[in-house]
Amino acid sequence: MNKTQHAAARVLTLGGALMLANGLGLAGAGEPVALTAEQRTAFGIEVAEPQPADQVLSRRYPAQVTVPVRQTHVVSAPLDGTLTGLLVAEGEAVEAGQPLARMQSPGLLETQGALLEALSKLSLARSELERDRALFAEGLVPKRRLESSQAQFNELATAVDQWSQRLALSGMPDQAVEALKRDRRLSGVLEVRSPIAGVVLEQMVGTGQAVAAAAPLFRVARLSPLWLEIHVPLDALGGVSPEAQVILPGEDIRGRVLTVGRQVHGEDQGVLVRAEVVEGADRLRPGQFVEAQLGYSPSWAAGGAASGTTQTPGWRVPAAAVVRHAGGAYVFAERAGGFVAVPVDLVSEEERSAVITGHLSATDRIAVTGVVALKAAWLGAAE
Known about the structure:
The chain is an alpha+beta fold.
């Protein structure tokens, strides 16, 4: 805008607009407010098309990014021992089965020794069982002795399976257990492996530290999808339900509501609304605080869909486009010869926009700036 336009804009305050309305013979109420091109420029009027709105956006609520509980795993020490090396650090991506740490464990040696001892006894019991089967076939021993040998063999076979399972639970791979049975070579070195593919969120121990069995070592999580835990005031829950849309303003990230809590928090009288984010989850971090808006269908839209009736369309317009007068709300729609004040119903006031219903169409162009001066000219013409 040049200096001349700035000067004209200063003159065209509310009083200036009223002078235009009265002195230039503008139309009365309900008829177009006619403006010349110079007057439009002086008013600073810009127009835009209303956007269809099938939902209402709430104001911004505080939310925290969390990891779904089913996607988080705490990796613990399988046996007592000493950590001899950490192979990953916090923030690293890991694959399922990838070693996270190495440790020396006397308990591992004891378990391996117990397995080898059970294997030796099982081998001897197998030989005795085969001999007794042959003797029983020749009638040289009673059936009772054969049954006793069979029971002894079964008992020792179960013991071998138990010790093998203990080694597997300790983190020893199946191929390593089979190699131990074959080569009978003991090792006290144990690798602690990741149960899932994900990211190391927390490292809870250091190299050289002695740990007890079941002591937590790492926290590993899969970071897609993520949850948003949104605190919504109790009196603002109307219309919020599972599958409602969630928007992170400025992030271009959207999600959907999973659950609406039933408990009211005493501190802020808020309710926990949990949402899931899939697309864009890689741009969020667990523990991060963000602001979220909830999108839900207003009663007029939901009612029309449920009953099959035709409802007045909803429109989203800039908040500055809506003016109020005598208890009503209006927007100025561009018509042949100027602008007409169109009465509308204000459904919801959002941060920078408003959702309205009224006799508008997608091809209409409404004033979004210079609206105060337009209102003054309109009211002046009506007097």
